[in-house]
Amino acid sequence: MRILINFLSALVLLVSVSSCIEHEVIPPPTSTVNLTCTFNGYVNGTQVELTQNVNSYLGNTGNIVDINPSPNPSFMVYMTEMLSPNQPLSIRLKLGALNWDAAANMEPTLTMFNNYHTNSAINVQNYGDNINAPGFEVTYTDNNSSIWQSRELYNVPHTVAFSNIKQQSDNTGDYSFFDCNFSCYVYRNNPTTSLIDSIYIQNAKYSGYFRR
């Protein structure tokens, strides 16, 4: 009888101790999108290479929105760039415009976003500098902080091709990753001569992303 009582006492003590142990709660794993950008090309014959986390270069993305009352379409232009707080030289690409009915959706849906960027690799892209018209645009800032920009109406050879479109999402947003190969002239108004200067960006490749 004494043995049984001792056994029951030990069992009660064991249950009491076990109930006091706090179990560690392990949160579920979260997926994080790897947001990286690179640029490589020849600017007036000189190779220019920008690499993420080298000389503090990082990728940045944003959108330009033109909201219009329905039934007029609204427009979304997508922007991505590589820049550094320590270096003046930078490169920016714009692609637009996705049009949609803002009365039906406050912003383009994920399906619209995916379809638009998937089609960018299928359809021929033209250069443009008007927010309300389809077009691809390049802005290059040189080591002297002069800003050079592609232009739609100049009759000179220019090419652009998107490939390797891939959509990924995490808790920061929805992204469309791509490779973009292009060659084009970019221009600036010379402040001294008031003439238009140009430089040629050739065999350029920008690997980056747009954000919805």
Please describe what this structure looks like.
The structure is a single chain. With 212 residues, the protein is mainly beta. It has one domain (35-211). Helix content is 14%, strand content 46%. It has helices spanning 2-20, 110-120; strands spanning 38-43, 46-51, 58-66, 74-83, 90-100, 135-141, 147-149, 159-170, 173-189, 196-211. A five-stranded antiparallel beta sheet has the order 2-1-10-9-8. The chain has a five-stranded antiparallel beta sheet with strand order 3-4-5-6-7, covered by helices on one side. Strand 3 (58-66) and strand 4 form a beta hairpin. It is globular. Residues 1-15 have low confidence and may be disordered.
Describe the secondary structure blueprint for this structure:
Layout: H1 2-20, E1 38-43, E2 46-51, E3 58-66, E4 74-83, E5 90-100, H2 110-120, E6 135-141, E7 147-149, E8 159-170, E9 173-189, E10 196-211
Antiparallel strand pairs: 1-2, 1-10, 3-4, 4-5, 5-6, 6-7, 8-9, 9-10
